[in-house]
Amino acid sequence: MDLAYATTGHRAQGLTRGRALVRLTGSEDVNWLYVQLSRARHDTRLYAVVGPEPQGAGELDLPDREQPDGYLQLAQALSRAGSQTLAIDTPSRPDLQRLSTAELRAERDRLRRQLDQAPRDRGRKLDRATTHRQQVEAALAAHQQPTARQPPGMLRWLRRGGDQPAGMPGGVAVATQQANRAYDRERELRQHQQHRAGWLEANAHLGPAYRDIVRTLAWQRRATGVAVETDRPGDVLEALGPVPESTRGRRAWRQAAAEIVQYRRSYQITDPDRALGPEPHDPAQRAARQRARGAIERVQAKQRTANRTRDTQPTSERTSQPRPHQQRGRPGPERAAG
Question: How far is CA 243 from CA 247, 250, 325, in A?
Answer without folding.
Answer: 10, 6, 22
